[in-house]
Amino acid sequence: MDPRRWFHEHSLKLLAIRDTPEAIAGGVAIGIFFGFTPLIGLKTALTILFAWLTRCNILAAVIASAAHDILWPFMPVIFRAEYDVGFWLLSQPHHLPPRLSKSQLHSWLSWTTLFTVGKPLLFGSLVCSAPFAVISYMFTKRLVARHQRKKRARVPPASGNQDLVA
Q1: How many CB atoms lie within 10 A of CB 166?
Q2: Is the pTM of this model over 0.85?
Q3: Residue 158 covered by a domain
Q4: Which of 46, 60, 76, 110 could form a disulfide with 27 if both were Cys (CB 3.0 to 4.6 A apart)?
């Protein structure tokens, strides 16, 4: 799979959506925001819910959330960075978490670890994803607005004196 081709196809789907640039950009920002969270099973549902609540374009949100899945091979590294940020922000005094060893990876598979690791990971993912969501909103809004202006310039205006056929 060629990532450039895949990105091009998905961007064309976004440009084909008939909605305001703000609604499409809002949907993309929501999809990118939830794409960074570790809530793997809830990501799409939360994306749809928040796009609906904010009256953003749901299709754009789902496409952006799915487009974020291209980063899946890198997500362990991204999750570790988000965990580090969350751990640093939540610890008093601020300090980074200890380094992981291979023996500690076995303990990560228990449910008790979810409660100790989950809070910093979720908080760090929210802090780290917010700037990407804002940047994607601004970029998408500008891109969609430019595309819609070009599309309106290409289509000649319909004349108002056409006869209606019954």
Answers
A1: 3
A2: no
A3: no
A4: 60
